[in-house]
Design goal:
The complex is a heterodimer of chains A (about 350) and B (about 100). Chain A contains twelve helices and nine strands. Chain A has about 350 residues and is an alpha/beta fold. A nine-stranded mixed beta sheet of chain A has the order 6-5-4-3-2-1-7-8-9, covered by helices on one side. Chain A is globular. The two termini of chain A are about 40 Å apart. Chain B has a single domain, classed as Alpha-Beta Complex (Outer Surface Protein A, domain 3). In chain B, the strands form two sheets. Chain B has a three-stranded antiparallel beta sheet with strand order 2-3-4. In chain B, strands 1-5 form a two-stranded antiparallel ribbon. In chain B, helix 1 packs across helix 2. The chains are: A alpha/beta (about 350), B alpha+beta (about 100). The interface between A and B is medium-sized, with 21 and 17 residues.
Chain lengths: ~350, ~100
């Protein structure tokens, strides 16, 4: 994984170039919504989808190359559930994308590790939802999920791939947060956490009810949470108001729906009906135009908020919560207030 | 110059994207980015695994209406740089 680029300046210039032309630099493609798990906080509705077939995916990848796309994240559902996932990976690798795979690890064994090696996959991200089988498996609703995940990680330690663990911290696993950090440390792999729970793709906020209460958050050690620092990087300054969604970032559903971002689930076209160029550049949906024309000053409530430095607002989640592009995110406001208190308590 | 007789080939481990009139080239480990503009883009697009540097030089001169003497050193420099940066290799040498 790139820790410090030898030419960060060129990376900045590259980002600027993509931004000026609204070119998709990075895309997240959900190859399927099928999954052996049934995570209690999952934001997908898991309705049966008429998934793009391998020929359509090849065409999609060709269009992404023409668009200039460099990074592609392949996720699900569980991507390895697709029998043709090896072909999808091979096609993506042939087009020289920088590929990340997001997976539960449940269907991952030595053949899958060899598949990653063969296709020069550099990064894989797993969900970790507990420090042991009891919690992890119960949140995923899949007995054996934890042991399979640890098995996958042990296999991958022998391969040149960057492994990352990501945890969504909810009521059911907060008591193991410290232990999850220790587990990642023991495994010597990258770990990050998030308090954010995404509403379902139809805006249903039920999953957010699993989130921590104010009294619980303020008792946490802020150092155990990757909070707000997401936006402390200069290149992401004020990204909680104006992010790259719809400009240099895009999302694609299993059936080829195109979104400004995988979390900003407003369909702006479908790849079966129109080309990516038509959807993204030639005939952009009014929603996409509005998104691209947003300015910081449009976020009237947020722009002068004293908690901005602690804000974790994701414009996509905010849109799912409120149905509006420029409104504040209730969950982010709640978390910022709680984090402020948690930091105050730590300092006293 | 020996390089003029050489046939450049693009390193197939690179990620190459056309962004407007520019070409972006990324090394496999994402540690190196190269941005080609103007005549460099023209030269890059002439690399086909068949044409020698000399033939590419001629194409450039025809396209931009410059003399071979004017352009030769710049073209040689471009391909030398490409080789140093591992963007191309010279696997073949055309025998006259």
């Amino acid at each position: 994984m790139r820790e410090k680029s030898v030419n960060d300046n060129l990376h900045a210039q590259l980002n600027k170039k993509y931004r000026e032309q609204n070119r998709i630099h990075s895309v997240l493609y959900e190859v399927t919504h099928r999954c052996p798990c049934n995570c209690i906080h999952c934001f997908l509705l898991k309705e049966p989808k008429n998934e793009l077939n391998i020929d359509e995916i090849n065409q999609l990848f060709l269009q992404l190359v023409k668009e200039g796309t460099i990074e592609i994240a392949l996720s699900g559902g569980e991507p390895f559930i697709r029998k043709d996932f090896p072909q999808i990976l091979s096609s993506a690798a042939q087009h020289r994308f920088f590929i990340t795979i997001l997976t539960t690890g449940i269907l991952f064994g030595k053949p899958e590790a060899r598949l990653l090696e063969k296709n020069h996959i550099k990064k894989i991200e797993f969900s970790l939802l507990g420090a042991g089988p009891e919690t992890h498996d119960s949140i995923m609703n899949f007995k054996g999920a934890f042991n399979r995940l640890i098995g996958a990680i042990r296999i991958l330690k022998n391969y040149p791939v960057f492994i990352a663990l990501k945890a969504t911290v909810i009521n059911q696993n907060v008591h193991e947060l410290d232990a999850m950090w220790k587990l990642a440390e023991k495994l010597e792999i990258h770990f990050s956490t998030s308090l954010s729970i995404t509403p379902r793709e139809n805006g249903d906020k039920t999953p957010q009810k699993l989130g921590l209460a104010y009294d619980e958050i303020i008792k946490l050690n802020p150092d155990l949470l990757d909070f707000a620092p997401l936006y402390s990087n200069e290149s992401l300054k004020n990204a909680h108001l104006l992010c790259r969604a719809g400009c240099t970032v895009g999302g694609i559903s299993p059936e080829g729906d195109i979104f400004p971002c995988i979390l900003m689930r407003h369909k702006i076209g479908n790849i079966r009906k129109n080309t990516l160029e038509e959807i993204w550049h030639l005939h952009p949906d009014p929603f996409l135009k509005r998104l691209r024309n947003l300015e910081e000053k449009d976020h009237t409530r947020c722009i002068n908020c004293e908690l901005l430095s602690l804000c974790s607002r994701c414009p996509g989640i905010s849109y799912l919560e409120t149905g509006d592009l420029s409104l504040h995110s209730p969950i982010a406001c709640f978390h910022a207030k709680a984090m402020k208190k948690a930091i105050e308590m730590q300092n006293t | 110059m020996e390089i003029l007789k050489s046939i450049p080939e693009i390193n197939n481990q690179l990620t190459i994207r056309e962004i407007g009139e520019d070409i972006i080239i990324l090394s496999e480990d994402d540690l190196e980015i190269h941005n080609l503009e103007g005549t460099a883009v023209f030269l890059w697009k002439c690399i086909n695994g068949k044409s020698t540097v000399k033939q590419i030089l001629k194409k450039l001169c025809d396209e931009y209406e410059v003399s071979s003497e004017q352009a030769e050193s710049d073209v040689i420099e471009f391909f030398k740089e490409c080789k140093i940066k591992k963007l191309v290799s010279f696997l073949h040498e055309k025998k006259d």
